[in-house]
Amino acid sequence: MLTVNVKVVVKENYIEDFIEATILNASKSNLEEGIIRFDIIQELDNPQNFMLVEVYNSQDAPAAHKETDHYKTWRDKVEPMMAQPRSSIKYSSIFTKDTNYDL
């Protein structure tokens, strides 16, 4: 599994619009074959800061996700809402609730 955390800082006057557009994208993303889960989280102390937690079942799945119409629509819609360019960090999953280890 591959987990990608995408940090997004949204301009204050676009927070609700960003949430609406991102929920629509996440809802459709969660239906993709290559996506295990797609979560949206918002920082409590600074509500302009968001993290998209994207968990994929393969290394190739993020590229397939970026080819979907809903991703392209989201990307174009939220770009002007961002206070700075989004950034991401990729992680390899070591343990999840579905991991089977014989301990």
TrEMBL record:
The superkingdom listed in its UniProt entry is Bacteria
Among the Pfam families in the record, one is ABM
Instruction: List residues of the ABM domain.
Output: 2-90
SUPFAM superfamilies per record: Dimeric alpha+beta barrel (SSF54909)
Q: Which UniProt keywords apply?
A: Monooxygenase, Oxidoreductase
Gene3D superfamilies for the chain: 3.30.70.100
The GO cellular component terms are: cytosol
Write out the GO MF terms. Answer: monooxygenase activity
Stored PANTHER family: (4S)-4-HYDROXY-5-PHOSPHONOOXYPENTANE-2,3-DIONE ISOMERASE, QUINOL MONOOXYGENASE YGIN-RELATED
The identity of this protein, by name, is: Antibiotic biosynthesis monooxygenase
